[in-house]
Amino acid sequence: MMMSPAPGPAPARSALAEAIVAFRLPDELIRKHIHEIHQGVLAHSRYIREANFTSIHRGDLEFLFGAYDERFFTGLCLRALEGRRIRFRLATRMTNAGGKTTRFLSRTGDVSYEIAIACNLLFDGFGDRDRSIRVCGLDCNDRLEALQRIFEHELVHLVEQLCWETSNCAAARFQDIAARHFLHRAHTHNLVTRRERAADSGIRLGSRVTFVFEGQRLTGRVNRITKRATVLVQDGEGQQYSNGLRYRAYYVPIGLLEPVAEDASDRGPTSS
Ligand SMILES: [Zn+2]
């Protein structure tokens, strides 16, 4: 009886792995490709109309995927997916990570992938008076450059997943691929987070703040900062906290809060 050899990795995936290992391009040419993609987005997107764009669509991430795959992986990324689904998502609630690549395994054994980009972090930076932004160790002049750096980083996660089924951006293999393909020097970013934005405006955890809610001016203390701030306002009908007082929680966009002078007699609650 004839035995067939154990199945190796699918041909498209090994072709992608070989191409990645062999990839060498002069820095100048890499920068040129990346700039062409930057220009391509501006020329084709119905949403990204300027480098410091104010709107973005999931389709823009699909466009980036196609453009990077073509220029850096000769289309092998799409082929290595072998019909498995890849979804692109604009995340609005990521508080620290610039993006996230996930491999899903369904109960029926189907594998799919998702690349999510933290657009809240992109939109929070690049104001006129903002500090400079570095993503993946590279200075970003505008929001689109930061988006590209994050996307490149996530793309390396994806190709590692496709070729080796594991991916770790703190590990040497990832950093070597990211450096050779995209000139990345780090796997971190210093995008402006809500926490920093809030601290800049004088609002931090524990700050006394005032805001208007349904026509009424309320004063309370910041208890939590995510996309919005959680402000605890003393309220006889509210929930009882550790200091014995009752508070009601309000979720307020940080931009609507004004800091107010400390009142020494009110130390505020700790968490419930
Ligand atoms: Zn990573």
Report what the structure shows.
The chain has 8 helices and 10 strands. The chain is of the alpha+beta class. A 5-stranded antiparallel sheet has the order 9-8-7-6-10. A 3-stranded mixed sheet has the order 1-3-2. Strand 8 and strand 9 (246-252) form a beta hairpin. Zinc ion is lined by residues 153, 157, 169, 187.
Distinctive features:
single chain, 8 helices, 272 residues, elongated, three-stranded mixed β-sheet, alpha+beta, SH3 type barrels, five-stranded antiparallel β-sheet, binds zinc ion, 2 domains
Largest sheet, in brief, is:
5 strands, antiparallel
Multimerization status: single chain
Number of helices: 8
SS elements, strand count: 10
Distance between the termini: 71 Å
Topology as a string of helices (H) and strands (E): HHHHEEEHEEHHHEEEEE
